[in-house]
Amino acid sequence: MARVEVDGLPEARAALAGLKAAADRHLDQVCADSAEAVARRTRAVLPLGPGAGGHLRASVGVTRQPGMAATVGHGGPRFRYGPWIEFGGNVGRHHSVHRTWIRGGRYLFRMLAMVKPGIEPAMHGELREACRESGWNPRG
Fold this sequence. Notes:
With about 140 residues, the chain is mainly alpha-helical. Helices cover about 50% and strands about 10% of the residues. The strands form two sheets. Strands 1-2 form a two-stranded antiparallel ribbon. Strands 3-4 form a two-stranded antiparallel ribbon. It is rod-shaped and about 85 Å long.
């Protein structure tokens, strides 16, 4: 019977744990930066709305969740007209005010579509940086 010993297993495990921590940190930052980019672009294109009730632009915000997740939203109880501005429909007395319904939205989702193509390359770049931080050269 042959006996096999592996040298460096604890070091390899420690290096992988370090890589995981660095990758989580870097990818979380990509998600946060992407969400902020969507929010910034959405604020730039949203109409101001009625002055008495506040401005819908001011309601655009980013909520970060643990684990590489961020949500961009606007509206809320103070800005009940937000969905109508974004998607359209009929409002007012006897639904007399009409705005063409756009299923995909006018502002928020269009800005996400503009930012989305850059997210994957940014994640790749940040993963390479996490590898370098962990002492591993991803290029060879």
